[in-house]
Amino acid sequence: MSGDVKEILKKVRDAILEYNPDKTVEAVNEALKVGLSPMKIMEKGVTQALKEIGKMFEEGKVFLPELIMAGEAGKAALKILEPKIKERKEKIKSYGKVLLATVEGDIHDIGKSLVGAVLMANGFEVIDLGADVPTDKLIEKVKELKPDVVGLSALMTTTMLNQEKVIKKLEETGLRGTVKVIVGGAPVTEEWAKRIGADAYGADAMDAVKKIKELLNIKE
Ligand code: B12
Known about the structure:
Elements: H1 3-17, H2 21-33, H3 38-58, H4 64-86, E1 97-102, H5 110-121, E2 125-128, H6 135-145, E3 149-153, H7 157-172, E4 180-184, H8 190-195, E5 200-201, H9 205-215
Parallel strand pairs: 1-2, 1-3, 3-4, 4-5
The structure holds cobalamin (B12).
């Protein structure tokens, strides 16, 4: 990475670490102007800063107001970058339908939205149900929309349990065989995915694309 690029990405991180949405927007626009890819700005700028703030929150160095302000700065960045990430590089027919949701009890939606945007850019039809989606509503939507894949995001150790709940409900309602399930989110691991009977785990947005293509047998 050239010095300039490093400097601009640092500006994005610093703006978020200063909990300043306006400055974040300014830095993101500057990064776009010099030709940085929206994904790079998101991953090497926004996500890294949010992780850092999460760590400080865990260590009791910052508190809820800071977490909220950082979230707002992150959302402001995503608002600019999301439509740019969604743009398809080429006209390809849809690889399949993915239903995305952050599970019940969990309002974190930045990571899920990023995953959705990257899936769209890579040729998937994405239906995003949003955050804090009740398990029963999700099941209803699977019945109604017949997706190929359901992607479940959870950002807290407590709400990870609701990923398992969704899979159990899919089994109970006889829908499990009709749909593949991929899980993700900061506390989620490959091991957890296996334990709850998910078909795959995605560590980040690009990994989600790779794993979903594998699940649907899409070869290129
Ligand atoms: C921003 C933030 C918030 C914002 C959220 C704003 C929003 N609209 O999303 C606000 C302020 C609202 C918030 C609230 C809370 N938060 Co919070 N938050 C964060 C923070 C700092 C960043 C999350 C983020 O957006 N990261 C950036 C995105 C891009 O990364 P990501 O979400 O991990 O997503 C990537 C991957 O995980 C993956 N992925 C994500 N979803 C999916 C889905 C699929 C299908 C796949 C394949 C992949 C995938 O791909 C993404 C792209 O690479 C994290 C810290 C952290 N380390 O995660 C804490 C964190 C998640 N929050 C935490 C807590 C405790 C809370 C609160 C309970 C605080 C409180 N006392 O009220 C509340 C929760 C309220 C609720 N009921 O949900 C804890 C959770 C701890 C735990 N028990 O597990 C964390 C870990 C902070 C910490 N270290 O203590 N938070």
